[in-house]
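Give me the fold.
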Amino acid sequence: MGDCCTHLEKIEIESIMALTQQRKQELISNFQVHETDTGSADVQIAMLTDRINRLSEHLQANKKDHSSRRGLLKMIGQRKRLLSYVQQESREKYQALIGRLGIRG
């Protein structure tokens, strides 16, 4: 019986962390640089931010979920590296992006 609950918890965590296809399309269309863009740094940062926000909510309710916390820290590190890249490329683009996402500040 314990395995069933653990399995259900894993499914719940996966659904919280995973982006739905519809939400992913919204983020891509809002942050894409050109019409066929799906993987630019802006889009990746937007998707990571959405996943980070969802996982942060999960961790507020499940404080002892250490494996998810580790995943959150890895995502934050990846987003930080991508933001650093955008900042090096264009300071104005960086400022606009963090303003739109409501992060860092």
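The chain has five helices and no strands.
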